[in-house]
Amino acid sequence: MAPWELEEQFYQSMGKVIVRHMGKRQMTTYKLSRQSGVSFVQLDRYIRQGRRMPAFALYRIANALGVTVAELMPDKAEEPEQLSFDL
User: pTM for the full model?
Assistant: First the structure.
């Protein structure tokens, strides 16, 4: 697996974790956007399309969800299988 594919999988998994936390709090994307200060369109790109997320946006999302940034990291079961690659 190519390095960019691993990164893409990581961000897609992180989006799933964010959606899971939103569900626990019965929070819509719109409400998370308003509470985090991250635009609705950008937030949708992060959680639905697996786009790269700046650290500060991740911090703001975690804060709005009432969790730590670490809690938004994918679980081992969701991480890409291959974490090393040959150059």
Answer: 0.81
